[in-house]
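ESCALATION

Customer reports they have been waiting on this structure for their group meeting. Please prioritize. Original submission:
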Amino acid sequence: MQACAFLYGAASVPGLWLLRQYAAARACGPAHALVMLTMDAGDGCDVAVGGSSGRMAGPNREFDQLSAMVTALLNSINLSG
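Update from on-call: job pushed to the front of the queue and completed.
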């Protein structure tokens, strides 16, 4: 569980920095790939801890909200570009 918490924390700042750079460059392909990779890592972490939804419910909900916001950002860039 601690390893998953570390993974979520360590990946979030660099991941968001990269997404911001991709958005600024209107590079939606790499940004979308990064979002999908991060979502897969989150799923893998959940499986590794045996799907302990009680302990991971808060972080998973926040991660889902962040993913939805990033997806909306990428969609708005695609529509305006």
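Sent to customer with the following note: Helices lie at 2-24, 28-48, 53-80.
Escalation resolved.
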